[in-house]
Amino acid sequence: MDGNGRWAQQRYMPRFFGHKAGVDALVKAVNLFADRGVEYLSVFAFSSENWKRPYDEVSGLMGLVLVAVSKYITKMAADGIRIRIVGDRSRVSDRLLAAWDEAERLTADNRRLHLTVAFNYGGRWDVTQACQKAMADGVKAADLTEEVLAQYMAFHFAPDPDLFIRTGGEMRISNYMLWQSAYTELYFTECLWPDFDAVQIDRALAAFAGRDRRFGSIPAAQTLSAGD
Ligand code: FPP
């Protein structure tokens, strides 16, 4: 959800104003994606690297997430959204952890759309913690297949993503879902996250629909032998 800071600066407002608008955009986007048949949506809310930001911005974001959970959780629950939070919980405050637990518990039976919020998350952290858990479980090196390791990863409950959308104009993955996005279609847009509305979503989905996904194979027609 990149571009909140610039969106605010363009309006001569503090960066926090952009993050607030980012939350509103997220709440709308969740329903727009669900209406279009998307079943799993994950958003990168705070990366392992975001701690490097000024103290005020980090604490502002923490407070914003806390407020956002209490403000929107009833609506999300009523809209059929199941919420999960993934990431390293070790540096997150007890208050925020309690709010996460409540959000997960309240929405656990919902199935319209699975929303995963990645918070204090990094793709490299995920691979590392999965290996650590597997080793702690006594999994032997020879038994550590891709499938086994995937079960220990933070996104173990979700299918690998079909589409990766990055707003804000940067063309990189920035340590998001590194393992899971091996065959994910990438879509980059200049649009700043608070402006990511229905039109932008339809544009991204249309671009995805036009992609030829071969997963390392060759087009089906070329796999037929002569006479088939
Ligand atoms: C990146 O924009 C955005 C973030 C680091 C924060 C995103 C978090 C939210 C929108 C809050 C999510 C809340 C809940 C409840 C899940 P940036 O600040 O890097 O923007 P810039 O590139 O324009 O500086």
Let me know the average pLDDT: 94
CATH 4th-level superfamily: Decaprenyl diphosphate synthase-like
Summing up helix and strand content along with how strands pair, one would put the structural category as alpha/beta
Series of secondary-structure elements, N-terminal to C-terminal: HHEHEHEHHEEHH
The CATH topology comes to Undecaprenyl pyrophosphate synthetase
Distance between the termini: 47 Å
How does the major sheet shape up? Answer: 3 strands, parallel
Number of helices: 8
From the spread of the alpha carbons, the general shape counts as globular
Strand content: 5-15%
State the CATH architecture: 3-Layer(aba) Sandwich
- Give the strand order of the largest sheet, numbering strands 1, 2, ... along the chain: 1-3-2
Helicity range of the residues?
Answer: 40-55%
The total beta strand count reads: 5
User: What small molecules accompany the polymer chains?
Assistant: farnesyl diphosphate
Rg from Cα? 19 Å
CATH uppermost class? Alpha Beta
Textual characterization of the structure:
The protein is of the alpha/beta class. The chain has a single domain (4-210), classed as Undecaprenyl pyrophosphate synthetase (3-Layer(aba) Sandwich). It has eight helices and five strands, in the order ααβαβαβααββαα. It has helices spanning 4-9, 15-35, 55-78, 94-106, 123-136, 146-151, 198-209, 220-223; strands at residues 40-47, 81-86, 113-121, 163-166, 185-188. The strands form two sheets. It has a three-stranded parallel β-sheet. Strands 4-5 form a two-stranded parallel ribbon. Helix 4 (94-106) links the parallel strand 2 (81-86) and strand 3. The radius of gyration is 19 Å and the shape is globular. It starts with a helix and ends in a 5-residue tail after the last helix. It binds farnesyl diphosphate.
